Amino acid sequence: LQFGAIRVRCLFTPCHTSGHMCYFMWEDDSPDAPALFSGDTLFVGGCGQFFEGTAEQMHTNLTQILGALPKDTKVFCGHECTVRNLKFALKVEPENEIVKEKLAWARRRDDEDLPTVPSTLQEEFLYNPFLRVTEEPVQRFTGKTDPVEVLRTLRTQRDNFKKPKERPNPPAVLAFDWGLFSPFLGKK
After folding, report:
1. Which of 54, 12, 82 is nearest to 155 (CA)?
2. Which of 22, 30, 128, 133 could form a disulfide linkage to 11, CB 3.0–4.6 angstroms apart?
3. Euclidean distance between CA atoms 25 and 160, whole angstroms
4. Is residue 186 part of a domain?
């Protein structure tokens, strides 16, 4: 497809859903890097759940389809879940300094209500465990060596990764401490 000078390649990436698509966009002779709108396939530091597909499909999506794009491609994912993804990446590779740096950066951005998207494919290959399935530390974490089995195990581990604790709302806690809710709770 082409919209003016912008070229669009539609990439069929079934797994999260059976009809999932990603969109790769670029302009010929442009100094700007191309863009990938990866939806629920590739996230900053993670990948989508396998709702309607398999680990084999996601492996193909990440390695042969998206992973084959130019490394300077900017990745615009469908959800902002970078901090949680990178917490999991740190669990997978606790010695990976790039994961530590990216997580610290993402936390600062999150604290300032700033986006962590986009990243680049080149960056993702340095800290995203779902793109690092052939790396020894990732394989050690999963106990597997076959890349598809590593990916399957990672996704299962990520699905069961503990959710962050809900932080109590400080004003609400103070209101309870001061007894401001007592009239509504039937306490005297």
Report:
1. 54
2. 22
3. 34
4. no
DSSP for residue 71: T
Are the C-beta atoms of 150 and 93 separated by less than 8 Å?
no
15's CB contacts (< 8 A; 6+ apart) are 41, 48, 50, 51, 52, 53, 54, 57, 58, 61
DSSP string, 102-123: HHHHHHHHHHTT-----EEHHH
A 10 A CB-CB count for 7 gives 15
Furthest C-alpha separation in the chain? 74
For residue 78, give the nearest of 132, 130, 115 by alpha carbon. 115
Which amino acid type is present at position 101?
E
Q: What is the pLDDT of residues 36-73, one digit of tens each?
A: 999 999 999 999 999 999 999 999 999 999 999 999 99
> How do residues 94-119 score in pLDDT, each as one tens digit?
999 999 999 999 999 999 999 999 99
Instruction: Decide if 9 is inside a domain.
Output: yes
pTM score, whole prediction: 0.85
Residue 7: its H or E element: strand 6-12
Inside any domain, residue 187: no
Q: Which is nearest to 124 in space by CA: 171, 70, 172?
A: 70
Cα separation, 139 vs 20, in Å, equals 28
Q: What are the tokens at 160? A: 């069961």
